[in-house]
Amino acid sequence: MSENEKMPTDxxxxxxxxxxxxxxxxxxxxxxxxxxAAAEPxxxxxxxxxxxxxxxxxxxxxxxxxxxxxxxxxxRKKHVGVIVAAVVFAVLLIGAGVAYSVLAPxxxxxxxxxxxxxxxxxxxxxAADDTGDGNGANAATTPAPDFTxxxxxxxTLTLADFKGKPVLLNFWASWCGPCQSEMPDIQTAWKEHGxxxxxxxxxxxxxxxxxxxxxxxxxxDAGYTFPCYFDANNSxxxxxxxxxxxxxxxINAEGNIIGAYMxxxxxxxxxxxxxxxxxxxxxxxx
Length: 286
Prior knowledge:
Blueprint lengths: L26 H8 L8 H24 L2 H35 L17 E2 L25 E3 L5 E3 L8 E6 L4 H17 L4 E6 L8 H11 L5 E3 L4 H6 L6 E5 L5 E6 L4 H12 L8
Parallel strand pairs: 4-5, 5-6
Antiparallel strand pairs: 1-8, 2-3, 4-7, 7-8
Helix pairs in contact: 4-7
């Protein structure tokens, strides 16, 4: 035996044998089989993501465009357009108000006329239509519509009950500022002419929360003593179509309307109305 054949081997080390794996799958394949497969996104989710990406892209484009000089100029034009539109709208409102104030007095003068001018407006009729029942050549023949009311004691009466004497009919409420402003002059006129003219001062009870108690309290606190009546069932408001106050009507002794005024009266306007009712037309506006 040659020397090469006589080389010793390590007899104390056991021979290692490695068994070949029986499973031919790779580790990756093994791991994949141990976990559930990832779910594919639905068609709706895919569309939603696409829309979101598109919106984000458009927003970015708008911001980029606004940052340019052209974009800033366009933005300024847009704001100017809004301001111009607001101004035009305001002008139209003012124009409508002016047109109403000009055209309102030109209404048919055979109807009850109510204007905000500085003089009581007379209600006129053509000479051929005048029955001669009024207290003057210019007296109207339009009867005042009748209505019911209650006095301070709760008794019921009508406007027709005052026929035979000229009537100054006024509609008011305690919460109405313009009504309050004319009350001192009404009190003074009643003291001076209460024996010649019936002052029928009607509270619009129920209008905007007005109550008989609040009206009486206002009159007592201010010391007003003229007679006051209450439109508790809206009879007066319906008869005269009262939707705003104060309003004042002049009714002659025959029960015909000879003048009217809308708004708060001052002493001169009230004096003119009294002159018309008593036949003293020297101070009345023609």
